[in-house]
Amino acid sequence: MEKPRLRGRDLGFVGIMLFGMFFGAGNLIFPIFMGQQAGSHVGMAVLGFLLTGVGLPLLGVVAIGITRTDGVFGLAKAVNRPFAYLFTVLLYLVIGPLLSTPRLATVSYEVGIRRFVSPGQQTLVLAVFSVIFFFTVWWFSRKPSRIMEYVGKILTPTFLILLGVLILTALLRPLGGLGHAAVGTYVSHPLNTGFVEGYNTMDALASLAFGIVVIDTLRGLGVKEPKQIAANTIRAGVISMVLMGVIYAGLAIIGAQSRGAFSPAANGGVILAQLAEHYFGRLGSWLLAIIITLACLKTGVGLVTAFGESMHKLFPRISYSVWAIIAAGLPAVFANVGLDGIIALSMPVLNLLYPLAIILILTALASTLLPAQRWTYTWAMMFGLIPALLNVITGLPASLQHWSVLAVLLHWGEILPLYQAGFGWVLPAVLGFAVGAWIDHRRARAGA
């Protein structure tokens, strides 16, 4: 018999599973680093971070729910099929084996393991750790039907308990107040900087990628009717985002308070290590190692599963098992680039994909109000693509930006409103949306 509605307990586990897939490496290191950098401006920085780190992923989940698609390809093909294939493959490569997934092992090692290894053995131990880590990820990812059991019922609850101990201890025994001077662009633009920093979590992209896992999980629980799948997908998204928002705020606050005892650090991993050792001594180092490894492990399982399922649907001649091996094998190699190197490599690509993902999500949300969507999607994406390509240049090293051709393009980009704040794509995309909606409206009336 068809099961139209989930039990509250099952829905809770699906929401926790989705949270577990979202909350990985960047979700720990970026908000706490942002809090330390923002200092007295931490409130505005957190607000900006929540808009991209929580608001956009929630909108992504909602977009998949209301359009009743099974993920990013279903949304992107509203533009056209070639774009859908290109965007889907690029997105999964970025949040999968090329950038986001390798970062999981690197963060686990840098924050949790490095201090236990002698300087001369760092390279070798990182390589061995990466192989063990991604072998474990692959093992948990072999059977997509069991992802809720592994991630929703075991890994994520354990992670939440341990992380809660660290955050609550730091909040109840603060190292200082929130009045320390802000650093860098947080001095003058804390909201904008926090907004852009939220890109680093890659969760708006992941919200499109994880849709297929949530929907397949719901179907496995007996929910078959599209309307109920959509409703439960949205409910699971709300549960996961509430958890993320609370933890982000807590991490940012203890990051700002850490300035009472520590100088500004190079990255969030250093701050976490300092806090864990301060509050728990030697035991804190092991506690942090377990927290970080669990966070990254469960997200790795989600990413490998989503990559394998989506690539198998796009290219069915290759089995899920083969795609899963690729998704877990390549990161074991790329993880050895190092944390700072992976972050530097990711920014130009994120500067391109994030605007396109936002345009896609918001256009999908508006689709319920429009008579047709073909040209609305196409024109909005076309107008937003060129400024998004300019964003790629701004993410390149400064030495490359001085090349004559790139310098000219950057000069043209400065003509766009909001370009300096990183949002030069917004008004062109809005204009394209308006033009496309007008064309769709005219065509709908002509066909009436």
Automatic annotation (TrEMBL):
<feature type="transmembrane region" description="Helical">
    <location>
        <begin position="204"/>
        <end position="222"/>
    </location>
</feature>
<feature type="transmembrane region" description="Helical">
    <location>
        <begin position="78"/>
        <end position="100"/>
    </location>
</feature>
<comment type="similarity">
    <text>Belongs to the branched chain amino acid transporter family.</text>
</comment>
<feature type="transmembrane region" description="Helical">
    <location>
        <begin position="320"/>
        <end position="346"/>
    </location>
</feature>
<keyword id="KW-1133">Transmembrane helix</keyword>
<keyword id="KW-1003">Cell membrane</keyword>
<comment type="function">
    <text>Component of the transport system for branched-chain amino acids.</text>
</comment>
<keyword id="KW-0029">Amino-acid transport</keyword>
<keyword id="KW-0472">Membrane</keyword>
<feature type="transmembrane region" description="Helical">
    <location>
        <begin position="152"/>
        <end position="172"/>
    </location>
</feature>
<protein>
    <recommendedName>
        <fullName>Branched-chain amino acid transport system carrier protein</fullName>
    </recommendedName>
</protein>
<keyword id="KW-0812">Transmembrane</keyword>
<feature type="transmembrane region" description="Helical">
    <location>
        <begin position="12"/>
        <end position="33"/>
    </location>
</feature>
<dbReference type="InterPro" id="IPR004685">
    <property type="entry name" value="Brnchd-chn_aa_trnsp_Livcs"/>
</dbReference>
<feature type="transmembrane region" description="Helical">
    <location>
        <begin position="286"/>
        <end position="308"/>
    </location>
</feature>
<feature type="transmembrane region" description="Helical">
    <location>
        <begin position="120"/>
        <end position="140"/>
    </location>
</feature>
<feature type="transmembrane region" description="Helical">
    <location>
        <begin position="352"/>
        <end position="370"/>
    </location>
</feature>
<feature type="transmembrane region" description="Helical">
    <location>
        <begin position="418"/>
        <end position="439"/>
    </location>
</feature>
<dbReference type="Pfam" id="PF05525">
    <property type="entry name" value="Branch_AA_trans"/>
</dbReference>
<feature type="transmembrane region" description="Helical">
    <location>
        <begin position="45"/>
        <end position="66"/>
    </location>
</feature>
<feature type="transmembrane region" description="Helical">
    <location>
        <begin position="234"/>
        <end position="254"/>
    </location>
</feature>
<feature type="transmembrane region" description="Helical">
    <location>
        <begin position="377"/>
        <end position="398"/>
    </location>
</feature>
<keyword id="KW-0813">Transport</keyword>
